[in-house]
Amino acid sequence: MLGAPEVLQLNSNIMQAIGAKKVLDIGVFTGASSLSAALALPPEGKVHALDISEEYANIGKPFWEESGVADKIRLHIAPAAETLQKFVDGGEAGTFDYAFIDADKTSYDRYYELCLTLLRPGGVIAFDNTLLDGAVVDPSKDTPNTVAIRKLNEKLKDDQRINLSFLKIGDGLSLCFKK
Ligand SMILES: C[S@@+](CC[C@H](N)C(=O)[O-])C[C@H]1O[C@@H](n2cnc3c(N)ncnc32)[C@H](O)[C@@H]1O
To answer: What does the pLDDT look like over 131-178, one tens digit per residue?
Structure first.
């Protein structure tokens, strides 16, 4: 489940290019994407790391410490949609710079709408696994994950609120640049 190194590296480079300070990392697992984001941010930057379970994040925490960025990462343990909604309700709409979405695939569209609200114009949403190992273009594949990602890809293609780059790196990375 670990994010592909080339994907995490591209995320970091874009974060730095756009001067990101406030980042959403949705789907933490063992903390690699949170760590690479934190390393890309300036000292005052914050990564809000969202996961439903702390079990695997606990494996990553010592590495956050060792890298000197633990104070830049705030872990939120709850279903990610609830945490994102709390940010919206707390008046944080338009204040985030970057969101990396890499959690449960059937919720990607929900995360997209919440993240679009939370991002500033010029902010970026990155979706991991938008090729799903090729399943999205295989008509014989119809698992809930495949159907959800296929629908999302169709939606993003025509969404006038963003500019889209659909990249064939890792397992597919879709970059949505908020207008
Ligand atoms: C693919 S892994 C994340 C990998 C991580 N981004 C990285 O680069 O190493 C997916 C994570 O999403 C989390 N997850 C699944 N459903 C979730 C939900 N409803 N809310 C928050 N996190 C969820 C899982 O616990 C798991 O840690």
So the answer is: 999 999 999 999 999 999 999 999 999 999 999 999 999 999 999 999
Cα of 105 from ligand 1 centre, angstroms: 9
Atom of ligand 1 nearest to the CA of 56: 27
Indicate which atom in ligand 1 lies nearest the CA of residue 33.
Answer: 8
Total structural domains within the chain: 1
Q: How many helices and strands in the chain, by DSSP H and E?
A: 6, 7
- Domain hosting residue 86, numbered range: 5-178
pLDDT in tens, 73-103: 999 999 999 999 999 999 999 999 999 999 9
In this prediction, residues 18-26 reach a mean pLDDT of 98
**Could you tell me the CATH number of the domain that includes residue 80?**
3.40.50.150
State both tokens at 149: 């990602």
Residue 41 burial (CB < 10 Å; 0-12/13-18/19+)?
Answer: buried
CA nearest ligand 1 atom 19, residue: 79
Nearest CA to ligand 1 atom 18: 79
